[in-house]
Amino acid sequence: MHLRKLVKYGIFVVMLVIGFCFTGIARAYDFPPPNQQVAIAQQTSDLMFNTLFAALTQEFDETTAANVEQGKQSISLIFNDQNKDMRLVGTYGPLEQSDRPRDSFEIQANALALAGQAYTSVQKVDNKWYYRRSIPLSNFRAECALCHVNFPVGPTSTQVGALMLRVPITR
């Protein structure tokens, strides 16, 4: 009889330990990623920004009053609504609804961008960690006014929105 109680107690303790282990493993996924992995995502974001800025500069160099519609379409294809990892976001028209801030990060980032400030954050989105970044955009080229007819002919220092980047953080 004493042995039976001891076995039951042992099984209870083992189950309790296993339960705590599984709880610890499950909670580990809720912890933010380590700084080293965030730093790698940040470096990836820097590379991504340089690539996108080069593409935008090339687009601006090639867009003229004669091909402005093609230039608009080209930019729209690069920053298409299917890609959640890079977006041009603003609140000044002419904009599609999809070009407006979509979540709390983008709302805050756009507000800061309009004041000329960049913004970064490490956030969990749909159960995945991301390094999120916004880069303020100004009316920095004369070509901006070709597509955005409500912008004054630039370059001006007027802040008009933000480039939003999102890089997954691998664990």
Task: List key phrases describing it.
single chain, 5 helices, Beta-Lactamase, 4 strands, 2 domains, 171 residues
Describe this structure in words.
The chain is α+β, with helices and mostly antiparallel strands. The chain folds into two domains: 1-31; 34-168, PAS domain (Beta-Lactamase). It is built from five helices and four strands, in the order αααβαββαβ. The protein has helices at residues 2-28, 35-62, 68-78, 104-114, 144-147, and strands spanning 86-90, 119-125, 128-138, 159-168. The protein has a four-stranded antiparallel β-sheet with strand order 1-4-3-2. Strand 2 and strand 3 (128-138) form a beta hairpin. The longest helix has 28 residues, at 35-62. The chain is rod-shaped, with a radius of gyration of 24 Å. The termini are far apart.
Layout of secondary structure:
Elements: H1 2-28, H2 35-62, H3 68-78, E1 86-90, H4 104-114, E2 119-125, E3 128-138, H5 144-147, E4 159-168
Antiparallel strand pairs: 1-4, 2-3, 3-4
Number of strand segments: 4
**Inertia-based shape:** rod-shaped
What is the arithmetic mean of pLDDT? Answer: 85
Strand arrangement, largest sheet?
A: 1-4-3-2
* Poorly predicted tracts of residues: none
The N- and C-terminal alpha carbons lie at a distance of 50 Å
Short description:
This protein is α+β, with helices and mostly antiparallel strands and 171 residues long.
